[in-house]
Amino acid sequence: MHAPSLPDRTLEAYADVAGPDRLERLRSLAEALSDRRILHVNSTATGGGVAELLRSIVPVCNDLGIDTDWLVMDATDDFFAVTKAIHNGLQGDGPPLTEGMKATYRSVTERNAAELEGEYDLVVIHDPQPLGMLDRLAEAMPDAAIVWRCHVDLTDPLEEYRAFVAEYASRVDHAIFSRTAYAGDVGALTTSVVYPSIDPVAEKNRSLDETAEAAERDRLDPLSFDRPLVAQISRFDPWKDQFGTLEAYRRASDTVPDLQLALVGAMAGDDPEGMAVYERVAEEAVDDQNVHVLTDLPDATVNVLQRRSDVVVQKSLREGFGLVVSEALWKRTPVVGSNVGGIPLQIVDGENGYLVDPNDASSAGDRIVSLLENERRRTRFGANGRESVRERFLLPRQLADLLEVLVGTLGVDSDG
């Protein structure tokens, strides 16, 4: 187990987007937790939405006076192959779950749990990877409350994977999901729904001055911002369906012949499929000079790409939440997204973007064209998107919801 480096974050940095009432509520909740120690555990420090969330949430909690740590598992490639199979199985597709896979999972999670030092009042376990730590945690910290924060789309899991995870989830004190539909039958006795959020002051989402933006544009050469541009920013993962986005782009380019497509993604440290998917996507796109397949761009460069794209696409087949949708909407860029997982929580069809069936690349292409051909609609959708994210999907709101759950799980009093 190791502790990632963290940026500086203060609650006051969010004063312009949170409003005084929410900031005061956060301070009140923090006061209730001021004598408690909180630990977050996940499986990677880079390349995924969970890591991005923790990188902001943990330092803000400490600024509020809540003693909060974040530890990342140390694990082997074999373990991550198993946990990716579990992730896929929970989303409805995966190989048979063997006894050998279970043994690998238990061995690595128990070894990591044995490395924990110190005492905590509450441990938040993120996603299925660290769930196997439960027995060792119960031995080492018998009085600690355990919260499982599941970020995965659980609407249609394979039964053997659901049952395997339920063995552990049934023993946590509380479980948090990103949608009510995900709670399902995974055994958790008490549950809450907390929508994820973006961090508006992070490098990926903050406003950029002209000089900084120009420098980041240079990194995106040979993309041209003088021609129509569509982008999808996602991990290279089968569920993100970059191939479907390519199909939608090709349909749109029949009408908009100078159209460009940027397929951009990071490599998550706990996802062994990422490089293989990236290579397949790059091979599929290699003969089209208007398609640019890019990986591991700096956050500031992604920021500029989301701002300067005419349309952002998120054509996922399954999606726990899909914060890249809110990232684009925050930057006033309309989004064409699949009607799956957390995407329809963020896109209001016909107001800040369009929703399409996840298997309907043709309709996605038509929606892209309708936005590219109507600048006034793009502008209106962009303004609506900015406000919808301000109201619902910025970090202070998520943090308040999370702290409410932690206060309730620990049974401590908070004002209001």
UniProtKB/TrEMBL annotation:
<dbReference type="InterPro" id="IPR001296">
    <property type="entry name" value="Glyco_trans_1"/>
</dbReference>
<comment type="similarity">
    <text>Belongs to the glycosyltransferase group 1 family. Glycosyltransferase 4 subfamily.</text>
</comment>
<dbReference type="Pfam" id="PF21269">
    <property type="entry name" value="TreT_GT1"/>
</dbReference>
<dbReference type="GO" id="GO:0006006">
    <property type="term" value="P:glucose metabolic process"/>
</dbReference>
<comment type="subunit">
    <text>Homodimer.</text>
</comment>
<feature type="domain" description="Trehalose synthase N-terminal">
    <location>
        <begin position="40"/>
        <end position="183"/>
    </location>
</feature>
<keyword id="KW-0328">Glycosyltransferase</keyword>
<keyword id="KW-0119">Carbohydrate metabolism</keyword>
<dbReference type="InterPro" id="IPR052078">
    <property type="entry name" value="Trehalose_Metab_GTase"/>
</dbReference>
<protein>
    <submittedName>
        <fullName>Group 1 glycosyl transferase</fullName>
    </submittedName>
</protein>
<feature type="domain" description="Glycosyl transferase family 1">
    <location>
        <begin position="226"/>
        <end position="387"/>
    </location>
</feature>
<dbReference type="Pfam" id="PF00534">
    <property type="entry name" value="Glycos_transf_1"/>
</dbReference>
<keyword id="KW-0808">Transferase</keyword>
<keyword id="KW-0313">Glucose metabolism</keyword>
<dbReference type="GO" id="GO:0016757">
    <property type="term" value="F:glycosyltransferase activity"/>
</dbReference>
<dbReference type="InterPro" id="IPR049438">
    <property type="entry name" value="TreT_GT1"/>
</dbReference>
